[in-house]
Amino acid sequence: MDAYITSNRELWDKWAEAHVTGSHYDVPGFIAGGNRLHSIELEEVGDVSGKSLLHLQCHFGLDTLSWARLGAVATGADFSPVAIEAARDIAKEYCLPATFVLSNLYNLPDNLCGAFDIVYTSYGTIYWLPDLPLWAEVIAHFLKPGGAFHIVDFHPMGMVFDGTEPGLRLGYPYFHGDEPIIEEVHGSYAEADADVHGREVGWAHTVAAGHHVQYGFETIGPDVWATDAPQMGFAQITAVSTTPAVPEPSSLAFLATSAIGLLSFRRNKKS
Questions:
Q1: Nearest to residue 240, comparing CAs of 252, 174, 4?
Q2: pTM confidence score
Q3: Domain that holds residue 250
Q4: Which of 84, 94, 235, 247 has the highest local Cβ count within 10 Å?
């Protein structure tokens, strides 16, 4: 397992270097006053003024700093030293109030003290985690009683299709298994032409893979799946039911690969 984590960290170090200077994350636009957050998470998380917020797997921190700009007492954590160094540099140079912690997610309780009103994670995070029950333990460790956990991510059905050929062709598992998904990588999800080569190791997790009850969480937010986020290179956001009618086959690939979901949980005050 350590070899898998090391491989991923080396890849994310390379990606961080490419993303800080690339066009996708638009660091100059952010520095000029932009905000990296999208309406789906802004509306669900709500007013963060004065609230302590922990952002897990924060990459090089633009979303963390976006929450800080909205008034949160924000802390970001990531396992990539290159990403954390970049986050700290941006925060320091532009006087943005946030703290950044270098740590493997599973070791974060050993490297960060305190409890938070909000724990947040977003877009492509749990794919990189082999152990969701342990992930839930980490979240529970850092949430204050009555605090809220929010995760926004792409629907896992979008991960099962083989995108190397046209049409609908299954290429990857939907359900979690002991063996990881291992891929050779050229470029990145954000900068296709970046001079980056490496290996990514991931794990499939389903929408219903939650462990929230045993760790003292209750569901507080809607299981919202939205398609077509304009802020992310798609068209207008449209809410879809959590149990939608089965679409026509011609639209299935679009729905599966563009659906975005947000789940919210609150830690029981007695836990």
A1: 252
A2: 0.80
A3: 2-267
A4: 84
